């Protein structure tokens, strides 16, 4: 599985996706997002160790979990790592 972020003119993006599919490359568009339940999260930091893009980090001063949604590639590696099941997807 390879995660790509495409940017540019919408017509060019659609052409690029069509080309990939013509090459028998499976394409699925990421419409999911990671959700963190702030009421459940205990800020243990276990999810930060598996996040490949460092979207999940612990603030060095407050030791609170911070989530940079723009860095998240929705790989979902954090979900099974959370001991209190505070992380999920919107689908």
Spatial arrangement of strands, main beta sheet: 1-4
Whole-number count of domains = 2
Radius of gyration: 16 Å
Helix proportion range: 10-25%
Largest sheet, in brief, is:
2 strands, antiparallel
Distance between the termini: 19 Å
Any overview of this molecule?
With 91 residues, the protein is an alpha+beta fold. The chain has two domains: 1-30; 32-89, Alpha-Beta Plaits (2-Layer Sandwich), CATH 3.30.70.20. It is built from two helices and four strands, in the order H-E-E-E-H-E. A two-stranded antiparallel ribbon has the order 1-4. Strands 2-3 form a two-stranded antiparallel sheet. A hairpin with a 6-residue loop joins strand 2 and strand 3 (65-67). The model has no long low-confidence stretch (mean pLDDT 90).
């Amino acid at each position: 599985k390879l995660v790509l972020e495409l940017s540019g003119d919408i017509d060019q993006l659609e052409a690029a996706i069509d080309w990939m599919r013509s090459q028998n490359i499976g394409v699925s568009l990421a419409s999911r997002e990671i959700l963190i339940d702030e009421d459940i999260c205990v800020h243990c930091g276990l999810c930060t160790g598996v996040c490949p893009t460092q979207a999940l980090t612990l603030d060095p001063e407050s030791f609170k979990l911070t989530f940079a949604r723009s860095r998240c590639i929705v790989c979902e590696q954090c979900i099974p790592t959370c001991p209190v099941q505070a992380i999920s997807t919107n689908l």
